[in-house]
Structures are given as C-alpha cells and as structure tokens.
Input
Amino acid sequence: MSNTEFDVSISDEFVEELDELTEQCVDLQASRSEVVEAILTAYFDGDIDHEARVRELIIRRRKGTL
Output
C-alpha cells in the first residue's frame, strides 16, 4: 500500500484532541499521522453511509451546530 501526503487544516480543538490521542499512544511511539490514519481507517471501515454522514457534518459545521 502506498501513502499520499497532503496538507490539512483543522480546528485548534481537534489539534488538542489529536495530541491527546497521540500522547495516549506514547507506548506505541505513534505519530500524529498514524493516529489520523487509524481514525480514518476506523471511519471508513465502519458500517455507515459515509457520503450522508460527511454531508451532515459539513452542513452542521457551517451552521455552527457541531
């Protein structure tokens, strides 16, 4: 499996949560990138309608209800 790097902007709140998760995996010496990839893997392997969920989250974020 190959990897692709890309820049992403996320809220400071998510950065804090991501850093907390990364710290909780200190025994694994996990990087932020590994934690993000694990989160994405869990999301995409989940049994949900990804398109509908993403659309819902974008709309809620733009309305300020997320």
Notes: The helical segments are 12-24, 32-45, 50-63.
